[in-house]
Amino acid sequence: MVAPPRAGQPRQVDLRRAISAAYYGLFHCCLTAAADEFVGVTQHATNRYALVYRSIDHKTLKELCVEAKKQTPPAKYAPYFPTGGFGPNLQAFATAAIELQEKRHLADYNPQPRFRTSDAKLAISTARSAVQRFRAASEEHRKAFLTLLVCPPR
Amino acid sequence: MVVGTLFEVKPAQLFESNDGQAGVQRVVSEPAVDSDGHEALRITIVLKRGSADKISGDKALDTLVGIDRALREASEDRFPIIDFVTEEELESVGDTES
Q: What is the pTM of this model?
């Protein structure tokens, strides 16, 4: 989608789709990790797996990521936060998730901004790096993050 | 403007291309509104010619983290919406509408 066409600049619709897909790649990485964690990696075809997978929405992810970036969590998250926070890998992932979610909103719903190829390319590469950081995070941090994602504290 | 000041100081250190050359030409910030209707800060990072392909995802991500941290340290709580654009893209007006 970000490859230059035979003539002229890439179409806005293609750049928008690329930015949207970059965010969704990151989002679905989270959903898969959560369902793998709580139902099981071998259970992809089951209803339980789908139930957990579909239980997470964009707002919940954003709210958790806003808190996960902080060294000191707010009171309602404090009992479930890892000591010292989520660490640099998950904090980087959280930063990217929020940023890409906002860009995806603009790309999908707001006709006003004009996107450039650089924007789309860097959204894609940022999303890929964010997924790598998520996978590189410690198991303890990742499990705490996924638990809060599936079961946000009230 | 807080962000402008921050990036005027050390833009090269915040965002280098993979060959170690500074990839940033300049950084511009302006007030904006995010998708929830909250006040936000649009930060446009203008990249040097041809540098967009030389910047890895890790460096782009580290830049986002660096901007986020710098804003928090400056007690700037508006959400940053960060755009990337190269000099040549700024000069180009021929992109298609759809």
A: 0.88
